[in-house]
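Query form — protein Signal recognition particle protein

QUESTION: What is the three-dimensional structure of this chain?
INPUT:
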Amino acid sequence: MFENLTSRLTRVLDSIRGQGRLTEEQIAAAARELRMALLEADVALPVIKDFIDKVKERALGAEITQSLTPGQAFLRVVQSELTATLGGTAEPLNLRAQPPAVILMAGLQGSGKTTTTAKLARRLKHDEKKNVIVVSCDVYRPAAIEQLRIVATAVGVDVFPSSVGQSPVDIATAALAHARLQYADVLIVDTAGRTTVDQDMMAEIAQLHAALNPVETLFVVDSMTGQDAAKTARAFADALPLTGVILTKIDGDSRGGAALSVRQVTGRPIKFLGVGEKSDKLEVFHPDRIANRIIGQGDMLSLIEETAKKVDAEKAAKLANKLKSKKSFDLEDFREQMQQVQNMGSMESLIEKLPGGAQIQAQMKNVNTAKEMGKVIAIINSMTPQERKFPDLIKASRKRRIAAGSGVQVQDVNKLMRQFETTRDMMKKVMSGGMAKMMRSLAG
Ligand code: GDP
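ANSWER: The structure tokens for Signal recognition particle protein are given below.
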């Protein structure tokens, strides 16, 4: 996410950060560099102009000139102006309506609307314990109706049936009546998208809007289209009272132009980011955290939240206690650790939230950590319990059998044994102090 923009901005800011004094020329030069970086990121021109003007104005003011650490102060100004450009504060989903709260989803075909409908439904059901129903009003593509049914069912959300041949407004009103009868908290309505903004589509969604009176009308847009995403959102905002935007495919967007342009071009807040194809890949949009990520400062808050959600606290506590009591670390413990890490989801999404994460990620492009970890677990699985408990028993002939059993080469088994031994040594050293404490604190 935003790797290119982040590495450019980090370079500019690093060169200025340590400065004890900032001259007007230095500020002007930095502003030029920032401008270039934003142009390259495909940010809308008026947004760039506004941002640079504000940064320059503040940089020449007392905030920086009288600061004891002007370089740092400059960084803070950039961070705060980026936050403002991104919308200032997070705007949570508004569900304060007579239930069911209706969420109308709009967007072009292929923007990720159906995927996002299911992601949002999952989030409301699992994280917020809402009773959610979804319905598709895409009567032009039977495949779209079926797609929503499949993805929503996969996340355990009820789907109101619809079919081609019905009118979208009829479907929507029937779904709303059904949701009322079911005492649903939320009804999410997926709609038909076209490949471009067109009058018929606009008219249809306006009718749906009138029939449903949604509390949220969200525009879903593909962030890979850069500032065009903001322009399309603007066209929709002109026709419909949009309450927010969801940017999808952020995981593939190295530039950031859409994220930085949407708020100012549309006047509407970004509410969520789609950060992957899977149904749990939806993040709440926090302008300040994203600004930090963009300038290479990482997003520790989101990282902590994400980790806390995913670590199985009970298991972590058990493992810590077990390690402490038996004081020896075997391959079963090693496997359990790997599984814990695997459960935390893709390493990439965690790493990119660390300060300097974008750079680490670039270096790791060729290493498929998830695959490597899966391999390690498969190898351990094909050992006997005895071997897992007493790894030193594993001699060459056993290694060949284990390799054959898990479909890998003997070298892979050797590599795993080395990794295990290093980890065991490390565990021995730290078990008395740091690690045990850390694992216990994670657990609760
Ligand atoms: P719709 O036509 O607007 O309903 O779009 P879909 O929901 O069918 O999505 C189009 C494609 O984009 C599918 O292949 C999705 O898996 C993919 N997609 C949607 N959101 C994301 C995202 O946040 N990240 C990535 N990488 N792919 C996404």
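ADDITIONAL NOTE: The beta strands are 101-107, 132-136, 158-160, 186-190, 216-222, 244-248, 270-274, 282-284.
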